[in-house]
Design goal:
There is one protein chain. By secondary structure, the chain is of the alpha/beta class. It folds into two domains: 210 residues, Alanine racemase (TIM Barrel, Alpha-Beta Barrel); 124 residues, Beta Barrel (Lyase, Ornithine Decarboxylase, Chain A, domain 1), CATH 2.40.37.10. It contains eleven helices and 18 strands. Strands 8-7-6-5-4-3-2-9 form an eight-stranded parallel beta sheet. The structure holds pyridoxal-5'-phosphate (PLP). Pyridoxal-5'-phosphate binds next to loops.
Length: 359
């Protein structure tokens, strides 16, 4: 038997999830965010399924190049914009659009002569304090873009929400108010919402929304799972039991002997570990599905294997199916046990796993 660990990508769930975005943000165009290899799901595979999107958002040029090489001719926005003036020719040749968030990028654009002006998204920092022009610099940046021959007319206006995953955090309303105030006298398509904005803040929908994580079936909100938000999980990480054994009371389990059997009991060895992208920090008690039933991780996950408590699965046998997250076990739950977020787990899935598509 070859190694049973695999990642399954459910393509019909992807299509379902983008239709859910359409239902929630009816009047808005959708920029589907597929940076970081489509959150670990495979850039080209995901782009092909999301043919219903109005544009794609990626972090940087190489990701966009990959899409164009695969023949994808949809609008593509570089969310971090150009890193250097040298990139602008290629950006123009590939027909990409840029976010402009820093004075250094204004300078690049002002110094270059392009055969055709670039579609530009002016990023405004309304409080996240990552990318974007601070409020007092917005008029200056907007005027310089308007006067720049390398920039197409009809500048898009953009900001990013910092705390929209918390429904009651008043900072989101403040960010919205700041944004609407700063752009009051400016025309142009606007965009604010990430997935959390799409689900929890309808007033953030405006002309364009920018969903990422919800396309992959995961709730961006701290108090719900994707299933509860009407989404379907796209990725399932699965494997099988490769050993089952009976241990005596007080016997230790795994590296560091951090867990001891509270009684005589059955344990199972699962063929996947942190070398596959399972979080090494997942503690004993993290849920795992064996034969579709919940059991728990015991001891530390190792590189290729981990051990589970089979006291509630006395009939379990070598070869039985195991799900680490995905269908039947929300990755939100595993992430929360491991002290991280689903985004990190999805992006961290190792390419050595067999990749299976269905739907
Ligand atoms: C990654 C990203 C998004 C998508 O965020 P999700 O929380 O995954 O929906 C939207 N906008 C920008 C600028 C991003 O970088």
């Amino acid at each position: 038997m070859s190694r049973p660990a695999s990642v399954t990508i459910n393509l019909s769930a992807l299509r379902h999830n983008i239709s859910r975005v359409r239902d929630l943000a009816k009047g808005s165009k959708v920029m589907a965010i597929i940076k970081a290899d489509a959150y670990g799901h495979g850039l080209i595979r995901v782009a092909r399924q999301l043919s219903d999107a109005d544009a794609f958002g990626v972090a940087f040029l190489d990701e966009a190049q990959e899409l164009r090489e695969a023949g994808i001719d949809k609008r593509i926005v570089l969310l971090e914009g150009p890193y250097s003036a040298a990139e602008l020719m290629e950006i123009q040749a590939l027909g990409l659009e840029i976010v402009v968030h820093d004075v250094s990028q204004l300078e690049m654009l002002e110094q270059v002569t392009l055969p055709k002006p670039l579609v530009t998204w002016l990023k405004i920092d309304t409080g996240m304090h990552r990318l974007g022009f601070l409020p007092e610099l917005v008029n200056m940046a907007w005027a310089r873009l308007r006067d720049c021959t390398a920039v197409a007319a009809g500048i898009h206006l953009m900001t990013h929400l910092a705390v929209a995953s918390e429904r009651d955090n008043p900072m989101t309303e403040q960010q919205l108010a700041t944004f609407f105030d700063l752009i009051r006298d400016k025309e142009g398509p606007r965009t604010i919402a990430n997935s959390a904005g799409v689900i929890a803040f309808p007033e953030s929908h405006v002309e364009w929304v920018r969903p990422g994580i919800m396309l992959y079936g995961i709730s961006p909100l701290s108090d719900s799972t994707g299933i509860e938000e009407g989404l379907q999980p796209v990725m399932t990480m699965a494997t099988r039991l490769i050993a089952v054994k009976s241990l005596r009371k007080n016997e230790p389990v795994g590296y560091g002997a951090t867990w001891r059997c509270p009684e005589d009991m059955l344990v199972g060895v699962v063929a996947a570990g942190y070398g596959d992208g399972y979080p090494r920090h997942a503690p004993s008690g993290t849920p795992v599905l064996v034969n579709g039933q919940r059991v728990t991780l015991i001891g530390r996950a190792s590189m290729d294997m981990m051990i589970v408590d089979l006291r509630h699965q006395p009939q379990a046998r070598v070869g039985d199916p195991v799900v680490l997250w995905g269908e039947g076990l929300p990755v939100e739950e595993v992430a929360s046990h491991a002290g991280t977020i689903p985004y990190e787990l999805l992006c961290g899935v190792n390419k050595r796993l067999n990749l299976i598509e269905h739907g």
